[in-house]
Amino acid sequence: MSQGLAIGGLLAAGLFAPALSPRIDQWRREIEDRGGGHVVVVEVETSADGREISFPADTAYGNVLRRYFLEEAFVAQFTASHALTINYYGPEGRLHLVLLNLARGGEWGAHREALLGHELGHAWLYVSGFRSPEYAPAAPDGCLAIHAGDIVQHILIRQELKRRGIPYQAYWIQDLERALARLEEDGSPRRQPATPCETAQRLAMWTDVRLGLSPEDWAAFGRFDSAMRRTFPDLAEVVEEMVSRLSRVDVGRRTVYRIALDYVGARLASAAGF
């Protein structure tokens, strides 16, 4: 637990839930019907340093959330994200807790439906039998489970968002434009050693772009790919290998999905130095 971490708004299960668009609410109900649990969307406030965390006092299953926010590694993952989804099964029941990071709301606020759709996609896969690697917040390689799962799951989530008519590319590209600006501003390969989690995150982002976008979707696709090759030349071969393998298989088949998860997890672990 982080020294001095303060968590507010932690009462027993209540009734608070943010308003959802019709498409998102329909998907929420389908997840609950299929999985027999509850989907809860939670708006979470965090201070700039991540030491103060709060959410509405009447948030359902706040007692469960508190356990996660007492884990320093989980707090670090959450504050670095726009949103996270916790798939939980315990004495309180089967829960899918979708956490929105309001501290970064300026980056996603105009694309709330796309962000929620993406997070519900993870819950949908969970109840459909396509589970991500087990995440252990306290484990040194906890972030590996997140990034390995994302690379494979995002392929299926993009397919489902398209099927449901939930636009997602504008939100994704907006985020990538920020990353591209930072890459081009740096202008040269990085010399400071990256942590394993940073390397895994870069591999996941780059592989995601190569699998899910094209120059027709995003005018700056080529610039982004060139900037990544220039800045992280040691990662290019790994990305090429993963893109080649994943683009040739149908991860919508459960057996193939599991093989793909194992392959990506091992490849990330080796390349990132876990």
Concise description?
This protein has 274 residues and is of the alpha/beta class. Helices cover 54% and strands 12% of the residues. It is globular.
Structure description:
The protein is an alpha/beta fold and 274 residues long. Helix content is 54%, strand content 12%. The chain has 11 helices and 5 strands. It has a 5-stranded mixed sheet with strand order 1-3-2-5-4, sandwiched between helices. Helix 6 packs across helix 11. The radius of gyration is 18 Å and the shape is globular. The two termini are 22 Å apart. The N terminus is likely disordered.
Task: Compile the SSE list and pairings.
Elements: E1 6-8, H1 22-35, E2 38-46, E3 52-54, H2 62-69, H3 72-79, E4 83-90, E5 93-101, H4 105-108, H5 112-127, H6 142-163, H7 169-186, H8 196-212, H9 221-231, H10 236-246, H11 254-272
Parallel strand pairs: 1-3, 2-5
Antiparallel strand pairs: 2-3, 4-5
Question: What attributes characterize this protein structure?
Answer:
single chain; about 270 residues; about 10% strand
How do the strands line up in the largest sheet?
A: 1-3-2-5-4
- The total strand number stands at 5
How confident overall, as mean pLDDT? 89
Tell me the Rg in angstroms.
18 Å
Q: Into which percent range does the helicity of residues fall? A: 40-55%
The largest sheet is: 5 strands, mixed
**Would you identify the regions where 5 or more consecutive residues have pLDDT less than 50?**
1-16
Count of helical stretches: 11
SSE class: alpha/beta
Query: How much strand?
Result: 5-15%
SSE pattern, N- to C-terminal: EHEEHHEEHHHHHHHH
Report the oligomer: single chain
